């Protein structure tokens, strides 16, 4: 399974690496379970047309608004949105996983929810900050289920 992610503070990167390690361990126990390939997208990334299905992981960084009725502006993660738009990469995305801080209330994981709405792929799961071991297991299971549909 392929995961494209953007990480500003390092939380998404840390979670993605824990997820890839977990997947490798699961694959070792059961070779029918998939491993994970990670690809970090950042400001200096060369955009390329994706050729295989992938999942997107995105943190939430917004300016303004309350997540309900008075708008907000995506900041710091726009490069991922642009990457998904490039050559219609979003058509290969199987779903998005969001992260953030639950103190953001209605803005928690709002960027991932907005991506799902804009691009038409499902919002699959969420986790807070760097996630917990239970989050890693839960998200991996959701990715496997979705990939096998």
From TrEMBL:
Molecular function (Gene Ontology), one example: FMN binding
Cited Pfam families: Flavodoxin_NdrI
Span of domain Flavodoxin-like: 1-149
NCBIfam families tied to this protein: PRK02551.1
Protein name: Flavoprotein NrdI
GN (gene name): nrdI
